[in-house]
Amino acid sequence: MYRILLGTGLLLFAFACSSSRPMQVVDIELHDLDTLFVEAPMPNSRKEAADFKLPWYKPAAKRVNDLLHTKLELSFDWKQEKVIGKASLDLRPYFGKIQSLTLDAKELQIKSIQIPGRTFEYRYDQKQIQIDFAEEITASEKYTVIIDYTAQPAASGGSSAITSNQGLFFINPQGKEGDKPQQIWTQGETEWNSRWFPTIDQPNERCTQELILTVEQRFQTLSNGLLKETINNPDGTRTDHWQMDQPHAPYLFMLAVGEFAIVKDQWRDLPLTYYVEPQYEASAKAIFQHTPEMLEFFSSKLAFPFPWSKYAQIVVQDYVSGAMENTTASVFGTQIQKFSRALIDDGNDGIVAHELFHQWFGDLVTCESWANLTMNEGFANYAEYLWYEHQYGADEAAYHLLSERSGYFFSVGMDAHPLIHFSHRASEDMFDAHSYNKGGAVLHMLRHYVGEEAFWTSLNKYLTDNQFQAVEAHNLRLAFEAVTGEDLNWFFNQWYFASGHPELKINYDYDATNQEIIVQVEQTQNPDRLPAIFQLPTQIAIYQDGTVKREPVWVNQRLQTFVFPSEKAPDLVQFDPDYVLLKEDQDNKTEAQLAFQFKQAPHFMDRYTALLTFLEAENQFSAIALTALDDPHWYIRKITLDNLPLEITDQIKQRAIEMVTSDPHSKVRAAALEVLNQTKDPALVEMAKTVIDQDSAYNVIGRAVQLLYRLDKKQAEIYVQQLENIESESIRISIAQIYAESKEPEYLSFFIQNLENVNGYAANSFYTALVDYLLNTDQLNKDIKVLGMIEQVASNQKQSPFRRLAATKAITDLANDYQARANRSNDQAMKQSLNLLVDQFTKALKNIKLAEKDERLRDMYRQLVVIQRQG
Q: For residue 596, which of 64, 388, 749, 825 sits 20 to 30 Å off, Cα-Cα?
């Protein structure tokens, strides 16, 4: 599962100012963990007997019956959004003798149940079918349960990661939702496939499967395994028989139905298919770029070839998460479906690698309970790092790890819990920045501790020993111990079974009298809430006279001092020079040491952390800005451009002009255009036109159009009209921001047409521009129907959470502006008219909040308030 993050990013994008200048990225590192816990529990010495309770514990499901094979025969009633199904389940007792069977079957309509050769009775409470046999069945006996049923799945909730628990979804079932395609698709994780077929819906169960799907002949289908047979029926339908001969967990069952373009590819002898909407057929291999190379890389590093019979990847509409690793067939939301030019420097490598690595870690070897979810997601998260490191180098991998750790540090301030979290309340709660981000970071530390060869050898043993089985963290520990010969309980107890991470205060000093380098490391995390002492094997690097000496150290005290002889003061001393440890730290480096670090130390994080420090002092930042603009990594160059002072020097200006056409990364070229946008230099008109005509990346073209608009509105309008229909969020945002400054009523149609065509951070920019446009043109006084359209987006739970939040914030911003106008007005008629508009805004916001099912969005909406009416 690739989760939709409703944490740091969404919060920042919701409440950031709407300036056209990019936000400073330094915010991602500033997280204060003093707010980790609201209050301390009562000390044990003060508790009464009644105060002592066992902690909440969520165990793995007990195995009573072993599900061996599932055969589903399905057809679909699109009009009523029903699944007409027949399920044949082969089972046997897991151990000993049994006299009952419990099947998960959420809100199905049971028509009949047959068990050949068995006498039984059953009860059904709309959640589970309880079958009681007249006679005991022994573990050597296999039996079959045949259930005819109808499913009409409906959502009753969701979470920040999986926004609906409906299980199976009909998309545009009546064909009345504009040009949205008709589709059916499923999302089984965590325990929601039992909304469309009866099963034992637990991650520690597994079976083989058959799906026999009858659909209209115009539709393609996809399911797990291989397509064994296709039959064209006389009534205009077609029956596809999909068969999965290797066992896997029921939550990984999937089906999809729709009109897709199917693009074929291959890795070794393995068939690969990419299912996309027909207009994206030519871009399919760019959408799923590097899939064959990833298969080769992961298979080779693991010394364990891809374990399944095929691999398909499909994009579906209105998906309720980021992506899902169903065995042999991963599902993705439309956020990845873009034309090739829109994927330049913004491709899908991370999410594609994530779901692919799951085919080993999650599908072949599956967490035995949701408390152990990181045994799936931590590996998939780390696969992103591994791929970036292999394909793009150490700097790109380090940049990715920075983002992942920042997400974890932000989330831990709200909720710290062990990585293996037996006290979680709901399974969906496990899909957080612990299971994903921290899980990946812990594997990164383990890799560096045991070494490269031992790491990959241990993973091979883990997969080999546990394939087609459910696992917990101890299975991984035992594999690593068997390979390394080392007791690793200390590592797993600290990082998997305890909470938090170390917070360090590091002091560097040089004692000239005794000719000693002194490094003092203090662990400052709250010892009442987290381990007082983390064990941290690492290194200390000493830079001196053009050489680097690395000293291995092991931090295992609350306050610890390391001393190294040296005849002179070093240029730089660096604790954890490879930035392996999952930690938050502060140190006492001088400006001279930081400048040396930025220019001489080799790691991406050396330059990044030094640059952030200099950003806080403009004089030092200006001194290294030109050097930073030549940094080997695009992100350093970009944040340098993003944070240049508005009054830039001629030298910086000239460097920015050069970067517009010469920098290899489109995000840097776009940032350079934004810098030049501040200069308002008319001599840049021709350069802007050349960029629009020649650059390959849409985000760069969008910035160039904005620059041209600043310098020559008439020429810009010609380009804008030519670009309006290009399928690119970057272009849409640029045009929206240009139109927002105008007072032309005809531009309203552009905003209305694109209300649902923006997502993620782009949604905030688009809806902010829409607010500016409506206020500049006073359109709401002329056409209040626009408010209804925005409200419909905000309250529709099938819209992405980013889009819903952006639309809700837009209505709040409009309400506040109109209320402020009313409060200032001395014209009573005008005041009354404005207040009536605000009443409509307020009613819309009330409806939106009532409709919203996502808890984090509801929390954010509480911060979106309308100012008080006066008079």
A: 388
**Phi-psi region for residue 396, left (φ > 0), alpha (ψ -120 to 50) or beta?**
alpha
- Condensed to tens digits (0 to 9), the pLDDT of residues 327-344 reads 999 999 999 999 999 999
User: Contact at 8 Å (CB) between 517 and 570?
Assistant: yes
**Cα 732 from Cα 750, distance rounded (Å):** 9
Report which secondary-structure segment, H or E, holds 276.
Answer: strand 270-276
Using only the alpha carbons of the chain, give its radius of gyration.
29
Residue that has been written with the tokens 């696969």 in this structure: 383
| 563 three-state secondary structure | strand
Which distant-in-sequence residues (6+ apart) come within 8 Å of 732 by Cβ? 754, 757, 758, 762, 766
- Taking alpha carbons only, the member of 471, 473, 472, 476 closest to residue 450 is 476
Whole-angstrom CA distances from 800 to 74, 470, 644, 756 are 29, 33, 34, 9
| Dist. CA 613–CA 632, nearest whole Å | 19
The rounded distance, in Å, linking the Cα atoms of 379 and 398 is 17
For 805-826, what is each residue's pLDDT tens digit?
A: 999 999 999 999 999 999 999 9
Helix, strand or coil, per DSSP, at residue 630: coil
**If we measure between CA atoms, which residue out of 759, 763, 801 comes closest to residue 321?**
801
3-state secondary structure of 257: strand
Residues facing 503 on adjacent strands: 584
Q: CA 607 → CA 505, 604, 639, 664, distances in Å? A: 20, 5, 12, 20
Can you tell me the mean pLDDT for 1-16? Answer: 53
Q: Which two tokens stand for residue 315?
A: 């994009």
- From the list 748, 718, 722, 719, the residue with the least C-alpha distance to 736 is 748
Residue 270's DSSP bridge partners are 267
Name the token pair of 285.
Answer: 């291999």
784 φ/ψ sector (left φ>0, alpha ψ -120 to 50, else beta): alpha
Amino acid code (one letter) for 521: V
AA letter at 204: N
Find how far residue 76's CA is from the centre of its chain. Answer: 32
∠296-301-307 over CA atoms, to 5°? 60
Across 411-415, 425-429, 705-709, 852-856, the highest mean pLDDT is recorded for 705-709
Distance in angstroms (rounded) separating the CA atoms of residues 714 and 709:
8
Give the strand pairing for 65-77 and 207-216.
parallel
Helix (H) or strand (E) holding 586: strand 584-587
Residues forming a β-bridge with 366: 470
User: What is the Cα–Cα distance from 211 to 255, expressed in whole angstroms?
Assistant: 8
Those residues with Cβ within 8 angstroms of residue 672's Cβ, 6 or more apart along the chain or in another chain: 641, 656, 657, 659, 660, 663
DSSP characters for 746-805? GGHHHHHHTTTS--THHHHHHHHHHHHHHHHHTHHHH-THHHHHHHHHHH-TTS-HHHHH
Output phi, psi for 701, to 5 deg: -60, -40
Q: How far apart are CA 5 and CA 129, in angstroms?
A: 35
Look up residue 195 and give its two tokens.
Answer: 């909304």
Name the phi and psi angles at 817, rounded to 5. -65, -45
Type of residue at 614: F
